[in-house]
Prior knowledge:
By secondary structure, this protein is mainly alpha-helical. The protein has one domain: Arp2/3 complex 21 kDa subunit ARPC3 (Orthogonal Bundle), CATH 1.10.1760. 69% of the residues lie in helices and 6% in strands. Helix 3 runs antiparallel to helix 4, helix 4 packs antiparallel against helix 5 and helix 5 crosses helix 6 (145-178). The mean pLDDT is 83.
Amino acid sequence: MRAAGIGLFIAVALAVQTTVTRYLPPGAHLVDLVFVAVVFISLTGGPVAGLIAGALAGLAQDALSATGTSVIAVSAGVATARSIIGIGGLAKSFVGFFTGIIGSQFIVVRPIPRAFVFFTATVAHAIIFLGVYSVLDSGYGTTPYRDIFSEAGANALVGVLIFQLSEALPGAVDRRRMSGGGMHINRRLD
């Protein structure tokens, strides 16, 4: 994936995430679409693409939440803390890079291995993000493990669905094109 494609994919995921979040009740942030996009890009593009995607996505989310004191949604839990630009970029870059390495070294083409990668990447991201925040801000609250694991499960489900759609749609378009592309009515003229 080229840099423009990575940027566009991250921008669309960020736009959908911020639009959908507006209509959800507080604390219902179950899926992190931007993080799912980072893992998707890193599995399809490799470690460098994952690093770039993680840096772009993390810095974009950090910049959108950088208002001095802000509400930060980490998994399904929400905590109020001073927002620090760069922690999300660091966590997403790290996870994107290592997910890209895993995707290039192991065969991750079936839904269950992909779900496992999305799940473990989400848990690793939460550990890094919450760990760095707890070191830098002693007043930062904790997130219950059930919230982290519920987000990891939701991210895994959405990530596998995006992979399935991305693999099925080009084949459907080709099949439609090969069949003539239009509707055919077979009539018998006897």
